[in-house]
Amino acid sequence: MSPGVIVLLTVVSVLFILTNLPRRGRTASYENADHKGVVLYWRPGCTYCMKLRTRLRFTRLRYSEINIWRDPEAAEFVRSVADGNETVPTVTVAGKAMVNPSKRQLLETIKTGE
Known about the structure:
Helices cover 41% and strands 15% of the residues. By secondary structure, it is of the alpha+beta class. 24% of the residues are buried.
């Protein structure tokens, strides 16, 4: 393998690891999350979760994150709003669920309150 490919694989591996780590200060359980605010339900390895979580890092949005693989109550909630599936990311804004929203959709929902 060429050195460029090795560097690229290393960078991709590091990004994969970093985007799957819980965020300090944002981790919550279903029980203690602020359900009147923004709550992001995710699971490790989900590329859609990685994409949304990475994009939200560059905003000032205050939100909680719940790993549904570590919280059965959160997984049950996600199934209740996603037709029985554990489709993530699922985000709630003041209790209103959005399944697999884009950053733009999420921020628009927060702005309009709808």
